[in-house]
């Protein structure tokens, strides 16, 4: 049985709060979600199912993905979403304002985004390692 992309998108949407996404038209949003999913597939190490076997027109994976694979893909999408904000020109360009303007430190904001990225990578690695150790035949009696 195939796993629809929508199942992964729903898991991803539970991990973030981005009200800007609701303002994007359906076609553009679908393009963004699929782009983040493609980035996630690259970041997820070899799994039980071959994640490259998918149909982008039907928007589904050919295999029935496990909950762990769906979780790893959702975290990978979150990582791609964070990278988009981290690499934004708003963060790269230096903001200069006058006395009357109030703004927050770009360096602190970028540092927090980097920390969020590190935490997401650690969470992905932890899930992958847990699965590797629990499903490794070497440890079976």
Report on the architecture of this protein.
It contains five helices and three strands; from the N terminus they run βααββααα. It has helices spanning 5-13, 26-43, 67-86, 89-92, 106-134; strands at 3-4, 54-55, 60-61. It has a three-stranded antiparallel beta sheet. Strand 2 (54-55) and strand 3 (60-61) form a beta hairpin. Helix 1 packs across helix 3 (67-86) and helix 3 (67-86) runs antiparallel to helix 5. The mean pLDDT is 85.
Write the topology of this structure:
Blueprint: E1 3-4, H1 5-13, H2 26-43, E2 54-55, E3 60-61, H3 67-86, H4 89-92, H5 106-134
Antiparallel strand pairs: 1-3, 2-3
Helix pairs in contact: 1-3, 2-3, 3-5
Biggest sheet, open or closed, and with what strands and sense?
Answer: 3 strands, antiparallel
Derived from helix and strand composition plus strand pairing, the structural class reads mainly alpha
- Strand-residue proportion: under 5%
Low-pLDDT stretches: none
Number of helices: 5
Strand tally: 3
Helix content estimate: 55-70%
- State the strand order across the main sheet: 1-3-2
How far is the first residue's CA from the last residue's CA? Answer: 32 Å
Radius of gyration, in angstroms, nearest whole number: 18 Å
- Integer average pLDDT: 85
CA-based shape: flat
One letter per element, helices H and strands E, the order comes to EHHEEHHH
List the main descriptive attributes of the protein structure presented here.
141 residues; mainly alpha; 3-stranded antiparallel beta sheet; 5 helices; 3 strands; flat
